[in-house]
Amino acid sequence: MSFRTAVAGLTLALMLCACVSAPTSVDGTAATLQGDAAHPPQTQNWIRTELYFGIGLVDQPDKGISDAQWREFLDRELSSRFPDGLSVFDIYGQWRGKQQSKVERLHSKVIVLLHPDGPQQRADIEAIRAAWKRMTGDQSVLRVSQPADVSF
Asked: Which domain holds residue 138?
């Protein structure tokens, strides 16, 4: 590719980027985050929280948390605290706990919660983490939280 061709391609890409505008609604006004009839119209100060739960060792499939135990925990601890919804993902993970020399390979679940950032929600999340550690004897439940722009 010649220098002239590369510069022409870059210039075209920059011109196309300049043409991008804010999304608009059907009536032509600028689109904004809006709620629906079942959810609040304000989506300020919302958080995306991910919780990582180790279900069992990959090389010991007959041990660990059963599907029935997981569903019971989900209903009792999560759905009761976040009844408006959540997402569950099955994942493979690795981790090395305190005082461990080897990495554990785990079947795991990730819960994704989108919620207002408030003291009650933070307390509920910590209660969920504590309940899992009590139930399983695990050292931790990884929590990742970040601001989220949410629109229903």
From this structure: 46-148
